[in-house]
Write a structure and sequence with these properties.
Blueprint: H1 2-21, E1 25-30, E2 35-39, E3 45-49, E4 62-65, E5 68-74, E6 82-90, E7 93-98, E8 112-115, H2 116-129, E9 131-136, H3 145-148, E10 157-159, E11 168-170
Parallel strand pairs: 1-9, 7-8
Antiparallel strand pairs: 1-2, 2-3, 4-9, 5-6, 6-7, 10-11
Length: 174
């Protein structure tokens, strides 16, 4: 009886350790809401703003596995733009940190951008536990006609600077 109980306890402990070691991180991206919901290996849920691909550079939808990790990546395709904490999942498309402001609207060339702080945290979980990435939803338009006008025009927005500085030219992020 003691032997059976001992084997049962050992089996239970081994099963628990095995499931913890294989706990994958679940990353769900909603393109319409421009949010990422991450369920970490402890079952905690985190919701972060993201920016996905803009018009003409749509982010692919579907369920993906991680293909490659690169904590200090620079884009060969886009003038060595920094892509910190890159988690590549589809043909050069990655989840990565960004130093640009304005998360919460489509703005990238197809990648999924999030704050560098959140990207660092996500990268460490994925590196340790692996991940499944689910991208779904319909992209909202990245154009804001009332602000920028049609894309074919070279529209300029004028914004008043601080402390009596002259007008500053601000161009739309195309």
């Amino acid at each position: 009886m003691v032997r059976i109980l001992t084997q049962f306890v050992i089996g239970l402990l081994a099963s628990a350790l095995f499931s913890v070691a294989n706990a994958k991180v679940l990353i769900r991206v909603d393109l319409g809401a421009q949010t990422m919901t991450v369920t970490d290996n402890d079952g905690q849920t985190h919701v972060w703003k993201v920016s996905s691909g803009r018009d003409g550079f749509e982010t692919p939808t579907g369920t993906f596995n991680v293909q490659r990790l690169d904590a200090d990546h620079f884009s060969d395709e886009y003038d060595q733009s920094p892509m910190p904490y890159s988690i590549f999942f589809y043909e050069g498309i990655a989840i990565h940190g960004t130093y640009q402001r304005g998360l919460g609207r489509p703005a990238s060339h197809g990648c999924i951008r999030l704050s560098v702080e959140n990207a660092r945290m996500l990268y460490s979980w994925v590196e340790k536990y692996g991940a499944t990435i689910k991208v779904s939803g319909m992209m909202i338009s990245s154009e804001e006609p009332e602000l920028f006008g049609p894309r074919s025009q070279s529209t300029t927005i004028r914004s008043r600077g601080r402390a009596n500085r002259p007008w500053i030219e601000v161009y739309p992020p195309y």
